[in-house]
Amino acid sequence: MAAQVAAGETKSAPSVPPEVKDIWELGADLKEDEDNSPWGWIRWCHTSKAALRKAEENLLSFVKAPMEFGSINVGNFDSSPEEPVKVWTAVINKECSGTPLVLIHGFASGLGLWALNYDGLAESKRPIYAFDMPGFGQSSRPTFNSDPSIAEEQFVMYMEAWRSKLGLEKMIILGHSMGAFLVFSYALKYPHRVAHMILADPWGFSEKPRDLSELAHIPTTHRVIVKVLDSLPLNPLWTVRLMGPMGAELIKRVRMDLISNFVHILKDAPSKVANYIFHCNVQKPPTGETAYHSMMSTFGWAKNPLCRRLTLLDPEIPMTLMYGSRSWVDHYAGEKIQASRPSSYVKYHVIVAGHHIYADTVNAFNSIVLDACEIEQKEQEVVKLK
Length: 386
Description:
CATH superfamily: Alpha/Beta hydrolase fold, catalytic domain
Number of domains: 1
Mean pLDDT: 85
Strand order of the largest sheet: 1-2-3-5-4-6-7-10-11
Shape: globular
Radius of gyration: 20 Å
Domain AB hydrolase-1: 100-357
Strand content: 15-25%
InterPro entries: AB_hydrolase_1, AB_hydrolase_fold
Order of helices and strands: EHEEEHEHEHEHHHHHHEEEHEHH
Oligomer: single chain
Number of strands: 11
Protein name: AB hydrolase-1 domain-containing protein
Helix content: 25-40%
Pfam family, one: Abhydrolase_1
CATH topology: Rossmann fold
Distance between the termini: 40 Å
């Protein structure tokens, strides 16, 4: 994995128009973020930006594809009037041509959790970008509106500002879970920027059922967790912060479904993956988490589900849908999407996997993504021949 540039040093940008050169920056020295005061050791959630950066480096240590990292300054907004919003971004194959593939992570995540996919996707020989959504990971933590529709619009606004700053004309855009929800929302507003939309186990499509017990495909333990989270007026990850120094250990115990996928390739995977998730989600303030809480009806459903807006989506946008057969997400929604777009390209897959489909079945997941990239490439070739 390529080393990051030193603090304060300007980093070369991907192949984009001259006016957006030199937009990659690391900002202030992260050592300044450490709490070196005599009382620093008693902080309940001991974390820092430097600790998160180190956790990301540890998680990505096995990735062979050269990666470059930096913060993209996307400007000042009403939600962050005093400081510009900066989006922590990684890029692979920056010198390659072709429509870039952009990866949008899900809730409580960051670009580090795509670690198992980077090398396989790099074979596409096209630029691959991933970033921490504002409010999560190493990106800025702007304030989001408590109105769910406005909060959703803010996420989309930051996505478009990021695209614009990098000068990406069109994107093959892939989202997982909440990220897929935001990809769909982005495509509604900026259809001309989407060359192909890939939704992996998308959150927030279906209407919330009246009785969760009717959903036989959701394990009983998941239904219990949903009911507990729904009954408390707290952000979903309050338990991790409540556990303080034991938060990473809690994640290690309850998220082995995800962590176990890294054991074969990453030394001390349980600790490294859990530490990354922990430091991603105890940074202050948890604005992305709060925005998600405002957008959700319960943990598994959105207040403004995508099914209500499906007919508004441009029929020219090709779609690839992936669902995990063991996931709590209703994969029958994919059939509804396909049936509602008879004249559009819609490819629908159900894979033997859980919700973290990108990590549970890496080869199958990457193959489907690369197939979507091939379809987009062939379409571009046809356009050139006309």
